[in-house]
Amino acid sequence: MKKISVIIPVYNVAPYIMDCMESLRAQTMQDFEVIWVDDRGQDDSIQLITDYIQSHDLPSSWYIVTMPENGKPARARNFGLSLAKGEYVLFIDADDWIEPNMLEVLYAHALLYNADISSSAAIMDFTDGTHRIMYNPHVGNGELTELQRSYLLRHYVSNFTTMLFRRSWLQDNEISFPLSYSGEDSSFMGMCYLMCRRITQIDEPFYHYRIHTNSISHRKHVYRGKQKKAAFRALIDFARAKDLLSTYRWTLYWIYFKKAIITSVLDYFCFK
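User: That's the sequence. What structure does it adopt?
Assistant: Structure tokens below.
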């Protein structure tokens, strides 16, 4: 078993994919696999990855799998997760990149605290050359209390790409990305925080989130609001199935109002 499975959906990211590949090849940890999920884009992203793997004589643990049809990021991530063999998994967006010690440090902390989730901060890299650090809400290291879990649920952002997730824990709790085109990442994080038993958090920014207008999260979509509502209904249904809705009812309804209703209204006026 590999220590980490890195899962990367690939869809029309040719201008940015080299940074992602170079950052993975530069990792100080070597015992990991990289699953590139071809989501049927129209550019030469997959050919660039193929050429890179061959020209650098990378191991067979770097490999490409192809979706039957374009399924958007959620379906591609779930597909990659179904193939992963690592003890922990990391999801990366193919137009982003990571610091050389990200895998090694997060994995070491995951083992130290026997954590289901091991997280770091991120850096937003803007096209004008400016940067901003994004932090996850902080509760410390170790076993989560109900109060800490409520705090995470009230204040979290969907920085799931800054985190290692224990793969067996995701599978045992049936946690996956809802198949919506918007809000699926935030709903996934809500499920994770609902079920997380032990967590470790580092405030050092290891993940570089590239902000550009071509990213999927910045594209207009006529059904964006409906998709967000569907994603967060899936979170509430998940809590109900896990018999946690009564405990976190008002917190989850606040999440739905804030992340599905308010953001949908803002999206509507921004995209008009």
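The beta strands are 4-10, 32-38, 62-66, 88-91, 97-98, 117-126, 131-134, 142-143, 163-166, 198-211.
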